[in-house]
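Schema walk-through. Below, the input block comes first and the output block second. Nothing else is stored per chain. Lengths vary across the set, and this one has 309 residues.
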Amino acid sequence: MTEAKGSSEPGDATAPGAGAAAGVDGASGDAGASGASGARRAPSGPGPAVTYASAAATGEAIGVITLRRPDNRNSMTAELLTAFAQASAAARADRDARCIVITGTGACFSAGADFRAMVQQPGAGPLPHQRSYAMYEPFLSVLDLEVPVIGALNGHAVGGGFGLALLCDLRIAALEARYGANFTRLGLHPGMAITYLLPRLVGASAAAELLYTGRLIDGAEALRLGLLSRAVPAAEVLPVAMQLARQIAANAPLAVRLTKRTLRRSLEWDPRDAALYEALVQAETLATEDAAHGIDSLLRKELPVFTGK
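--- output ---
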């Protein structure tokens, strides 16, 4: 599960979707408080929720995955997650791609979970932690991409959307956008291996502060902490990310892929195992009164008062 939407921070709780497919190749341009498994359905937007423009389509040995539900802040609805998994699979099968760029449309890269839709993936298993993990699995498929992945963070990335950003090898972000994991402010444990990834990027102390407080930071602070490669005005995010992708794609592809593999080996890279453990603990917190109150307060745009129950 993940969290992000609704409150005074970027991303209010919005509406879900269900069952769409990813547009692959030539695509151009641009619980709920109810709890574990219930998901409110809402009309999906026009066109696929996530598209993949292949290396052949871009003509630059670069593949581009684009989240395309700006009206719902590219939140983690069933529709978007299904489409993302398909787009990621298409990118993985694209042997001409030497670098992948992941970006969004609108004001948000991704605002994480849509708490009016679903907090866990329905039908993913009999146990709560299985449903929590399944919520993250489509985004975790980024880990299967052998080529470098650049997150072009066009806007806010919160909760699970922030987790997706951390899964990328490199990040270019908007100076004016907000980034972070506000799980504890909702009575929840973080998910999607955020507790594993964040300290490896910004150090244990900075990660602890951000996770314990749930504070969101702007692009300038994220750059200072070492979370980003560049922080630029929002309109420049994708062009700068594409320029970086071109520099990578111009190098020897086998050498780059093997360098990525060795980097991961050196870091004892195992985010999936961390995400599995987080799902266990997150499911435990999701069952608490604090979480129910925190999510309800988020939807009501009120400050929660937690009791430790």
